[in-house]
Design a protein that fits this description.
Strand content: over 45%
Radius of gyration: 21 Å
Structural class: mainly beta
Order of helices and strands: EEEEEEEEEEEEEEEEEEEEEEEEE
Distance between the termini: 51 Å
Number of strands: 25
CATH class of the largest domain: Mainly Beta
Number of helices: 0
Largest sheet: 15 strands, mixed
Helix content: under 10%
Number of domains: 2
Length: about 325
């Protein structure tokens, strides 16, 4: 039986940077906030296609001629609203494709940790990605889990930021870093030990994360493989949307009254920024417990609209708190079912 294990980092979005230069990737370039929806297309995992990842160093990669059609979608959620959050006290990011299976992450300014999936908690984990990240960086991460009694699975990945330049794909041309990775998976049972390896590449674009990803077949010896698996981002919808046709920048930070309010089941919350800033928009219940995270990350100046969806919450009073560079702004919301 052929076992295929895929490690996928599913990230998102702001504005493409078009200047052609070597870049540094920061944790703020991964605003994987609750409400973001990312659309992907990929090749069949069990039917490898012809690929050319190119060479290391400065390159201009163009993947527009690669045609793949299998589609899927990842929706990023507030982890506190998901069924397994009790197993992941450090998780502050979560995604699902089907409302059945959930992947949990912890994002900080130092790195991105993969905490686990559903009830499978990853032990002794190290950052999957470290920040800031730039050309020439190398690091190794590892973790293990025990998905079944008497079975352990150990994962070790060696990373190298081995390329930089531009990438051209269906969404346009962007500055990028290329991250090469080599994964070793060791599965141990009382009866046998199985080791599998494969190579992979991620093309990281600020505001999109891994815009394009390639992976080799299992146990491929050549890091510059010619067949394997391909995935690209084809669309992103964030939970926070900039107002269209903005003609002038606001002159102060504002948190506008939500509309409608009272509401059932959703309401719109608008805020404005006179200059770029670090922003979070969080909803609390009357006991001070966080029930939703609508925005977190670095935002450019402008006006924004967020949607608070309360269909899973009880009727009552809630507080929307906007924080911009340390200053807090709060308003009351009433959910009335």
């Amino acid at each position: 039986m052929k076992t295929v294990i895929r490690i996928t980092l599913l990230l998102c979005v702001c504005c493409p940077i078009m200047a052609r230069a070597q870049i540094t990737f920061q944790w703020t370039d991964l605003p994987i906030n609750a409400g973001t929806v990312i659309d992907y297309v990929n090749s069949d995992v069990l039917s490898p296609i012809s690929l050319d990842p190119g060479s290391a160093g400065h390159q201009n990669w163009d993947f527009t001629n690669i045609s793949v059609s299998e589609s899927f979608q990842h929706r990023w959620l507030d982890p506190t609203t998901t069924p397994h959050i009790g197993l992941y006290p450090t998780a502050n990011r979560c995604f699902t494709s089907d409302d059945v299976h959930y992947g949990y992450y912890c994002l900080t300014s130092a790195g991105l940790w993969w905490c686990g999936q559903d009830t499978t908690v990853y032990q002794d984990g190290e950052p999957v990605y470290t920040f800031p990240c730039t050309y020439g960086d190398t690091w190794t991460t590892s973790w293990w889990t025990s998905p079944y009694p008497q079975v352990t699975v150990e994962n070790e990945i060696d990373y190298e930021v081995d390329g930089w330049g531009t990438i051209t794909d269906q969404l346009g041309t962007f500055n990028c870093l290329r991250i090469k990775r080599h994964l070793t998976i060791t599965m141990t049972t009382p009866w046998m030990t199985t080791v599998m390896t494969y190579w992979g590449y991620d093309w990281f674009v600020p505001g999109y994360g891994d815009l394009v990803m390639m992976e080799s077949n299992i146990d491929e010896p050549d890091p510059y493989f010619t067949q394997g698996y391909f995935r690209r981002i084809v669309g992103i919808n964030t939970g926070v949307r900039p107002f269209p046709d903005q003609t002038a920048l606001p002159n102060q930070v504002t948190l506008s009254p939500a509309y409608p309010n009272p509401f059932n089941p959703s309401t719109q919350i608008n805020f404005s920024l006179p200059k770029p800033g670090d922003v979070s928009l969080v909803i609390f219940d009357q006991l001070g417990r966080q029930v939703a995270q609508l925005a977190e990350g670095r935002f450019t100046a402008g006006q924004y609209q967020a949607t608070f969806e309360g269909s899973r919450l009880a009727s009552g009073l809630y507080l929307a708190t906007l924080r911009v560079d340390g200053a807090a702004y709060t308003q009351k919301l009433v959910l009335m079912k």
